[in-house]
Write a structure and sequence with these properties.
Number of helices: 14
Largest sheet: 4 strands, parallel
Shape: elongated
Radius of gyration: 27 Å
Structural class: alpha/beta
């Protein structure tokens, strides 16, 4: 059974879906405010929840998954003014670029990526319900949520309501009843986009959009709500307050939060200016290596960013791919008998993922599997076809659940050399050795090394790898 660390309760809990049939799972995660390319911290969030989705699907759950884009916001408006472009043009540009980045990272897209500007009627309707329930009030065209009307406000972040500051992206003002009250609807300033509403021309606050979207597409209650740890307060706290004030029901059964990415142990963020966009990093490292690096740590823990750490992940991924390549080559070798005891490593992989989607330990299980198989390939006289096929299936299964490809092209010099050419050179070298022409055999080996191809002579035959 899968267990999930629930931020709401601060403990791991067995995952039990709301669906009486036990199969349908409703999940919502907060996406980007689209005024720039995603940075590496954002990329971690997307990759982490993609691994969650993949594993949930493997365990037989039918996920209904929504992930929004915030396409109207002060930062988008400021970017548009700076570049002399329309707000919608800025938002649509970075939505398209984000979707391209997700495809490059091998992230499955959500069932729907709703945008705030496309859900204005639903947002207004939810604000009206909150006013009707006396959970919100209007002051001069601004609508605020009254946090004193939210039962147990602060329960997610464990903050004391008496100490809370404003939960919106504006300064505290005198129109508020309480310092912690936050904006649901704000009047538009001159030159800003606006929508007509019962409170005048304006636009939605930050928090209300996610509540309205989740309510529209997934219903009053959902199974899992996810996002970055920096969203616990105020964003997710306020989502809970406003949604539960409307429905009178628990908003989400499980709350999952991805740890921050740090640079010199300080949070990576656009506001700090210490971020690197995914595209900047992808100019130095392949996307699949970046994905593998982002899965090498436990999702709840802070993770340090650095080129040396990504390079180390790349070397680890190469070891896995080299093992896969050796197994593929063994498919055509003379067949005999043999067996392998790899089941404990596969079981460890599944147990790690069942335990709060611990990709760090799952990756460790794969490395242990690879070490065992590499040792076997060096010792087995002539492994059976069934053995090799089974091993290939196991490795493909584990890496597939993490979204890791085993056959991506390498960026090394050897990445441009076709496999068939390498095999032909190895065959020529083997023939030279049989003819005792060791000088020619050494020449072939050295020539391959210059092309980024290293050879290793084993009892099972020659194993080669790209450097």
């Amino acid at each position: 059974m899968i267990s999930i660390y629930n931020t709401l309760t601060r403990r791991k809990e067995p995952f039990v879906p709301l669906d009486p049939g036990g199969k349908t799972v409703k999940m919502y995660t907060c996406g980007q405010t689209v005024y720039n390319d995603i940075h590496m911290g954002n990329a971690r969030f997307y990759v982490v929840f993609d691994a969650v989705r993949r594993y949930m699907a493997y365990r037989g759950f039918d996920l209904q998954f929504m992930q929004n884009f915030t396409d109207i916001d002060d930062k988008i408006i400021a970017r548009a003014a700076q570049e002399g472009r329309a707000v919608a043009d800025i938002a649509n540009t970075y939505i398209a670029r984000t979707l391209e980045d997700l495809e490059s990272l091998n992230v499955w897209l959500a069932d729907k990526h709703p945008c705030a500007t496309q859900e204005i009627p639903e947002i207004i309707a939810m604000v009206e319900k909150l006013i009707a329930k006396d959970a919100a009030y209007e002051r001069g065209g601004t609508v605020y949520f009254d946090t004193t009307r939210a039962a147990h406000y602060g329960k997610l972040s464990r903050k004391n309501p008496d100490d809370l500051l404003a939960g919106a992206r504006i300064e505290i003002d005198s129109d508020k009843r309480n310092p912690a009250d936050f904006v649901l609807w704000k009047p538009a300033k001159a030159g800003e986009p606006f929508w007509e509403s019962p409170w005048g021309r304006g636009r939605p606050g930050w928090h209300i959009e996610c509540s309205a979207m989740a309510y529209k597409y997934l219903g009053e209650e959902i199974d899992i709500h996810g996002g970055g740890a920096d969203l616990i307060f105020p964003h997710h706290e306020n989502e809970i307050a406003q949604t539960e004030a409307v429905t009178g029901k628990p908003f989400s059964r499980y709350w999952m939060h991805c740890g921050i990415l740090t640079v010199d142990h300080k949070k990576m963020s656009k506001s700090r200016g210490n971020f690197q966009t995914l595209r900047e990093v992808a100019a130095r490292f392949p996307y699949d290596v970046i994905r593998f690096y982002l899965l090498s740590g436990h999702y709840r823990m802070p993770m340090e960013f650095g080129d040396e750490l990504i390079a180390a992940a790349g070397r680890g991924l190469e070891r896995i791919r080299n093992c896969y390549g050796a197994l593929k080559r063994a498919e055509g070798a003379p067949q005999g008998e043999g067996n392998a005891s790899t089941a404990p490593f596969v079981e460890k992989f599944h147990a790690s993922m069942d335990d709060d989607f611990n990709t760090a330990d799952a990756v460790t299980a794969i490395f242990e599997w690879v070490k065992y198989v590499n040792t076997g390939l060096a010792q087995w006289e002539s492994p059976s076809s069934a053995l090799i096929t089974g091993l290939l299936e196991e490795l493909t299964h584990m890496c597939g659940l993490l979204g890791i490809s085993l056959e991506e092209a390498h960026s090394s010099p050897g990445g441009n050399v076709p496999d068939a050419d390498i095999e032909a050179q190895i065959a020529a070298r083997t023939a030279a050795k049989k003819a005792r022409d060791f000088a020619e055999a050494d020449r072939i080996r050295d020539e391959l090394a210059k092309q980024g191809i290293l050879l290793e002579d084993t009892r099972a035959g020659v194993i080669w790898k790209r450097t």
